[in-house]
Amino acid sequence: MNLTIHVWRQKSREAKGGFVAYKAENISPDASFLEMLDVVNESLIEKGEESIHFEHDCREGICGSCGMMINGVAHGSRGKAMATCQLHMRHFKEGDEVWVEPWRARAFPIIKDLIVDRSGLDTIIQAGGFISVNTGSAPEANMIPIPKPVQELSMDAAACIQCGACVAQCPNGAAQLFTSAKVSHLGLLPQGQPERYERVVRMVEVMEEMFGSCTMFGECEAVCPKAISIDFIARMNRDFIAAKFKSQKEISVGV
Amino acid sequence: MTWVGNFYRSAIGKKAVMAVTGVILFGWIFLHMVGNLKLYLGPEHLNEYAHWLQTLGSPAVPNKGMLWISRIVLLVCVVFHIHSAVALTIVNRKARPVGYRDRDYLAATYAARTMRWGGVIILLFVIYHLLHLTTGQAHRDFIENDPYHNVVSGFQVWWVAAFYIIANLALGFHLFHGLWSMFNSLGLTHARFNPWRRNFATAFAIIITAANISFPLAVLTGIVR
Ligand code: HEM
Ligand code: FES
User: Fold this and answer.
1) pLDDT tens digits, residue range B129-173?
2) B148 SS3 class
3) Which ligand has the nearest atom to the CA of A35?
4) Element (H or E) spanning A144, and its range?
5) For A105-116, how does the pLDDT look when each residue is reduced to its tens digit (9 = 90+)?
6) Could you report how far apart the first and last alpha carbons of chain B are, in Å?
7) C-beta of residue A114 within 8 angstroms of C-beta of residue A53
8) What is the spatial distance between Cα B91 and Cα A208, in angstroms, rounded to a whole number?
9) What residues does each domain of chain A span?
10) What distance in Å separates residue B11's CA from the closest CA in chain A?
């Protein structure tokens, strides 16, 4: 396949960026989008030009680093739960023009080309994404019984790979889906109960300092590579509202 | 009271306030629509109903007492509904200072994407509507305490009728998204009733819009005169 890709090039955080058109030639339809970029980069290196910088690691949809907007959709996924590394070139047509942009949000400054700084998401995790346990040897796995549906729901939320697609796709630049997944996967389990209300308040406060707010567009759910449901956002809202109706004492003892 | 301010300062708090004020406005608009259906029963019925609204609750409250209480409640709701909407819109604009060259929507409905402009149209309409049918300044042939006459002669002007129709379509879209979204804003999610949230919003958006639009249409076509 032969295509034209228009890629956002930006030398550094402060530099002014712009789109540059490249020819992607002799691309196998079985190649992933990242492999297509590899081919383009090789030709750039041969010509002595600087290669296109993009983030990648696992190349199998589990690390969450390969974020980019492809033709106006995060990961170019169009309703199928996948990351850019799982997007195959057969989804494009011969001669297509493809626009590739970095995630755009105030909280995600561009580091270089398609690489953005997603550490804002880490800041949210640091605010409350933990539980209190005694460290030491691993506890017996079945010590605390957890109903199967609860455990599965918690796992659905825990599937989040922190790629940032929800923020990138959200017209409001909101991190609600991400934060709600992190709040819920701990808040659903017995081990997460002691900090349940403190956690949601802290994480939401940090989230709101950096990101937009939710208007239930549903765009985040549509691009999430792990198909995490926006119902978790409602769950987070419920816990947050409940926490605000509790006294400081109730919150600190986790009831 | 500090916790109220604290709560409202957060974006999730604002969304909850938006949902609660929205649901009050929705309840009111539903009753308003049901009351207006009396247009089809004839002048006596509609006017009698209007009179009943004015004397509602008397003698416990003075005449128009209930009317004024509900007006104040509605005004407070409108103020908070709009304030939270404007404040959150500003936050959201700031969250993405540089936009995309190209962006595509996968899930966001037309209704969801027009909430802000739709809200502005509804607000302008409400102001016009009050001047038109409540106080009469915007009405060519206003007769105090004869709402039937005021509605019919008002809608006989085609562009007035057209504006009512357009504004109520905007209201329909607003409700279509808002009545669904409010469940999430208030954290009301449950596997068993989740599918019904969409049906609820769709049904009430259609019922309210269809009935409201039928009034100007009925006058324009001469069914009600
Ligand atoms: C075709 C649709 C509508 C018709 C025929 C209609 C008719 C009326 C009439 C006749 C009155 C005045 C009653 C009186 O004082 O004698 C009224 C009042 C009012 N209407 Fe509507 N209306 C419609 C739609 C709407 C909509 C969509 C809204 C707002 C979203 C709205 C908001 C109001 C308000 C706020 C009042 C004033 C209530 C008060 O007296 O404080 N109306 N309407
Ligand atoms: S490279 Fe790891 S998710 Fe795509």
Assistant:
1) 999 999 999 999 999 889 999 999 999 999 999 999 999 999 999
2) helix
3) 2
4) none
5) 999 999 999 999
6) 53
7) yes
8) 9
9) 3-111, 118-252
10) 6
Residue to probe by mutation, ligand 1, list B37, B40, B129, most atoms within 8 Å of CB: B129
The whole-angstrom separation of Cα A41 and Cα A36 is 9
Q: What is the DSSP string of B92-126?
A: HHHH-SS--SS---SS--HHHHTHHHHHHHHHHHH
For residue A221, the cross-strand partners are: none
Task: Report CB contact under 8 Å: B100, A101.
Answer: yes
- Give the amino acid at B211: A
What b-and-e string marks burial along A209-240, b requiring 16 or more CB atoms within 10 Å of the CB?
Answer: ebbbbbbbbbbbbbbbbbebbbbbbbbbbbbb
Given CA atoms A251, A255, B5, B7 in this order, what sign does their dihedral have? positive
Among A62, A73, A254, smallest CA distance to A158 is for A62
Architecture of domain A3-111: Roll (3.10)
Q: What is the CATH number of domain A118-252?
A: 1.10.1060.10
State the Cα–Cα distance between residues A123 and A159, nearest whole angstrom: 19
Return the ∠ at Cα B208 (arms to B133 and B83), rounded to 5°. 70
Q: What is the spatial distance between Cα A160 and Cα A64, in angstroms, rounded to a whole number?
A: 9
- For chain B, 225 residues long, the average pLDDT of each consecutive 10-residue run is 82 97 97 96 92 86 89 97 97 96 91 96 97 93 93 95 97 97 95 93 98 96 89
Cβ <8 Å between A104 and B99 = yes
The Cα B49–Cα B146 span in angstroms is: 11
- The answer to whether domain B2-220 has CATH 1.20.1300 is yes
Q: How far is the CA of B39 from the centre of ligand 1 (A)?
A: 13
pLDDT digits 0-9 by tens, B161-182: 999 999 999 999 999 999 999 9
Measured distance between the N- and C-terminal CA atoms of chain A, rounded to whole angstroms: 59
Asked if residue A254 has pLDDT above 70, the reply is: no
